[in-house]
Amino acid sequence: MSNTFGTLFRYTSFGESHGTAIGGVIDGCPSNVKLDMKLIQREVDRRRPGQSDLTTTRTEADTVEFLSGIFEGKTTGAPIAFIIRNTQQRSDDYEHLKDIFRPSHADFTYQQKYGWRDYRGGGRASARETAVRVVVGAVAKQILANKGIEIHAYTSQVGAIALDKTTAINFDAIENNEVRCPDATTAAKMADCIRTVKADGDSIGGIVSCKILNVPLGLGEPIYSKFESQLAMAMLSINAAKGFDYGSGFDNVALKGSEMNDAFVIKNGKIATATNYSGGIQGGISNGEEISFRVVFKATPTISKKQNTINSNGKQIELQAHGRHDPCVVPRAVPVVEAMAAIVTLDLLLLSQANQYG
Amino acid sequence: MSNTFGTLFRYTSFGESHGTAIGGVIDGCPSNVKLDMKLIQREVDRRRPGQSDLTTTRTEADTVEFLSGIFEGKTTGAPIAFIIRNTQQRSDDYEHLKDIFRPSHADFTYQQKYGWRDYRGGGRASARETAVRVVVGAVAKQILANKGIEIHAYTSQVGAIALDKTTAINFDAIENNEVRCPDATTAAKMADCIRTVKADGDSIGGIVSCKILNVPLGLGEPIYSKFESQLAMAMLSINAAKGFDYGSGFDNVALKGSEMNDAFVIKNGKIATATNYSGGIQGGISNGEEISFRVVFKATPTISKKQNTINSNGKQIELQAHGRHDPCVVPRAVPVVEAMAAIVTLDLLLLSQANQYG
Amino acid sequence: MSNTFGTLFRYTSFGESHGTAIGGVIDGCPSNVKLDMKLIQREVDRRRPGQSDLTTTRTEADTVEFLSGIFEGKTTGAPIAFIIRNTQQRSDDYEHLKDIFRPSHADFTYQQKYGWRDYRGGGRASARETAVRVVVGAVAKQILANKGIEIHAYTSQVGAIALDKTTAINFDAIENNEVRCPDATTAAKMADCIRTVKADGDSIGGIVSCKILNVPLGLGEPIYSKFESQLAMAMLSINAAKGFDYGSGFDNVALKGSEMNDAFVIKNGKIATATNYSGGIQGGISNGEEISFRVVFKATPTISKKQNTINSNGKQIELQAHGRHDPCVVPRAVPVVEAMAAIVTLDLLLLSQANQYG
Amino acid sequence: MSNTFGTLFRYTSFGESHGTAIGGVIDGCPSNVKLDMKLIQREVDRRRPGQSDLTTTRTEADTVEFLSGIFEGKTTGAPIAFIIRNTQQRSDDYEHLKDIFRPSHADFTYQQKYGWRDYRGGGRASARETAVRVVVGAVAKQILANKGIEIHAYTSQVGAIALDKTTAINFDAIENNEVRCPDATTAAKMADCIRTVKADGDSIGGIVSCKILNVPLGLGEPIYSKFESQLAMAMLSINAAKGFDYGSGFDNVALKGSEMNDAFVIKNGKIATATNYSGGIQGGISNGEEISFRVVFKATPTISKKQNTINSNGKQIELQAHGRHDPCVVPRAVPVVEAMAAIVTLDLLLLSQANQYG
Questions:
Q1: Domains, chain C, ranges and CATH?
Q2: Complex ipTM tops 0.90
Q3: What pTM was estimated for this model as a whole?
């Protein structure tokens, strides 16, 4: 609840953008798993601010320190706590925002809900919290990888520039560019789009697509912990996410049943489906096909353009932000989407062990 | 988890399509609430099968019987159990499907996950379960109504026929037609569309839009129980739902920050927003504006057309279903979407009481 | 929470003493388990009111009706709902108690907590609710029995009459008498004691001891879901329970470490302990030895003797109860203690599957 | 679950005896609460090892560092993370125990459950974890104190030396001696007892009694989250705890209903009880009287005397521990019992806000 996510494999997240540190505690991680610490740091680096000219200029080393639960390089079954120290916080940047409710930010709602707020850099509402998810996801990914399960997210749209849906996705090409779009030509257009809005002091949104490969049959707990339901909750908890769909989703709403039903066939001696409008999930349970979903992100609300808004005294004022921010969150959201997908998948994998017993 | 939904206001659902009864137990319902039983039955009737020629021909009275938790017409704080008996089940209809995995149904995944299955009418995977949600939602709605909170869902798209986004929504007109679209002209086109696919032995999907009015400021528990995250989970748990978005959602992905930021202004002496691309939620917390979201439903997988599929022996067969089914689930999904929205909202309302204390 | 118990194997209970029915919903029961319905009813009969002259004169058939989750005699993995109808409720018996707060009952606290109450027979606070636990426990017991795990509870004390601690317990003798004490001589004394207090219009308490045999090594989830911690919570949730201890417990508090440490030895080629002051649990985790605990029950607060108390107007009155009640709850608490022990054990067994993975 | 405790006010604990740090994350702490950091440290000091010659010789500063959730001295509603660094760990002390299963310790069960273990100082199973509880409890206590609620625990028995039950308890005298017994004469005898067993290389257990004062009417969530049930779970999760009782408990089992029923009377114009055998809880709900319970602790299993046991190769060996340990855990358990009582009480207080609504 609230700052904890997951059932059997679960974690609790803490920390503010400009506090001492952010971090998390993983509980329920199976014991006896060898962890590759470099892989964990590499994932965190994929989300790191300041990684390219398309992202915020706040640069953070984002070094992960583990405090517990790992002994001689392996998990012990005890909670795994970790912290990432905030080293580049400049609270002065935000002093001028102390009494201002920035448009489409969480300033106003936090103030009202909690009676007051840590205004420095958005406090707890900052997307900096997503670094915690990436650490947890990197642990989950390693356990999943031991089972052959892979997760690949990529940027499929920035503003109006969309990856052609018929393009075959080369997962190896995702990290070839700073936008994280597997198609080089489209990626270049997306990068141009982001640079243009940045130059204009503006921002832009987009879509992250994600595939989970080699998911065993039977994950997902109907009725209220269906695989898609857990993914949707996970994805909508990411800052700036505005929507989720899977399989046929929103785009195929005009298709008829006869056009979108996935006929069962025999492939390689096993029952499979001829098409995959189901997105790998039927009745809330993985059917062994590729799981496929999308998450849409809005344009980041922090822009350099002047905006009208209200301060905490209810007075209208003109705001011109000069904090550091991303013109487009999508490229850095890619590893966050993967992380949340990994956490959901591992949790459902552990849960599924209790389905048949005795 | 699994068959339980909610934190403080929560319920557990049970029952199969062709078993003795379906039902639920509400736990955490505040005491001392007078309940209008007719209102509850009226909501159930809105979801009832056989209500028009656009729906399945299975007709069920769907009478709600309460077993506990209500004394002299008021809640006592004890769990509220209720059942709806299955009266029109015809298991013979499904005998021929015993060994068949229907395309895009849950037959195959249930069989694999649980080792065997109740094949009668989809068993637990049947959308009949959603009647339970409607009962619970009808209780939640009454408590919300006491606080002035209203929930209105409607059909905004069927197949390719979409309600014009600029149309002002007249909530009172939603129940004027069997499609539950507030615009009569569009509703007629939608009904035609459904009748055409039905005549063709086919099916079609669509979109339900929903508005929650008069939600107090401060609902939603960041980071992982954000209002949108809870709504997404709730909506994706509904049978045939393939996606969720709120506020600007998928359709406004090309807008820039300067175009979609919601400037704060003073309205009627209170802080409000000039526009509502945020969909009434900022930082996961309700901001006092109208909450606005959409849910997309796929074409129901049961069609009368012949389809190729596989039976449980792995043999390819030709299937022609002759069970009773809806050509389009959207009109009957409207009250289900409302119910889940009500449950989420009430739960967050109760949770928010613990935010400030002392 | 509240009316739900358990994590993976969990159930929700509902119903009042004088309502339509009591019942429950089991969620998370593994699929494909053949259930012996007669065994379930037999367990319920062990708790049934009116089973002997030592218990209440309210007689109830307490017939269990299953509504879902079982198909062709086997579990399907779907929630298992069941009800037990109240047939012998006589609300008139309680009309005179409507405005009276009976001493040491829940009348006063329910009234204050919920603002009003269902006063008939104690409403939700009635021990009648424990029949629900017995049904759930009977399901759990069958799954445990398939794994060789046995649970045996018995009456070890009534008032001042205690079973000698050095007595070897013959589990087969427990049901030989109506007190459920495995030693016939002690049982006779206990029965006499109960008859004497009953004749005097009074009541008496006692202790139930319980052993869980053949529990596999490794059950219990440290730190906060230790086996003993879960048992304690479960036992203290039973009506009239006032305490719990396990292993060395309260009685051996004067022993030194050197006297109560359980030396590890090799027995039958396996690591075991020479003594069992640990009660089968070390560090919150089962160690493979017999799990052994006790639960103390107070004298039932309903007595026929005249008592002074207060009514809801704050006036002092004299109360003489004439409802039906047990002079000693201990004999009927025996199957309830077993049921809760079974539920805890099965839940921890399912949870333990996630400890090592990968 | 497992390393998380509580529902609305809840925390997650992490850390091993000889790792980098132990710590916790409090989630659900109400916002806008001013925290006295010195009070928190003072509570931790009460539990600190090395505080007197009656305790272990391991001395730790046990300085609490907060990482998040507190801004300008007040809670923000965000998770409150804190760590206590381990500064005096000497892993070499435990190298010789690497392959040995110490009697009545968790070595054997952790090894079996998790497949391997952090053997240094008991790893996660060390009572050092209870320092985390004390920090969380110290936060809870401050919020409770703002409501007038006080919690006082004390040592009521060490070995066979028991505080006379008729002694009036002077809460102010508890901290006057290192045993934390409010009666000086009894305290001196208890201290002598502990010094004697210590000199003998042995250990001894005892009983902590606890009173919660000024608890409002209505806390506790029947049926399965009754106040006593939550306390029992909390107390039995403490290392070395072997039992819990409240009110009349185990010692008054021979009393009849007519002797132990708490008659309602009017005191100071309010409904109260003449006696308090109920221990302040009726039907699982606080009745406004003093809540009174006990927790029994076994003799700490670490002793200097030679013991026979088994190593991980199944060979019998002779063990003589030379780590640092407490001859009696009871004096240091006093603040831990208070902390857990505070956490349970605050959680139930927050939960009770949802009972009546509308």
A1: 4-354 (3.60.150.10)
A2: yes
A3: 0.97
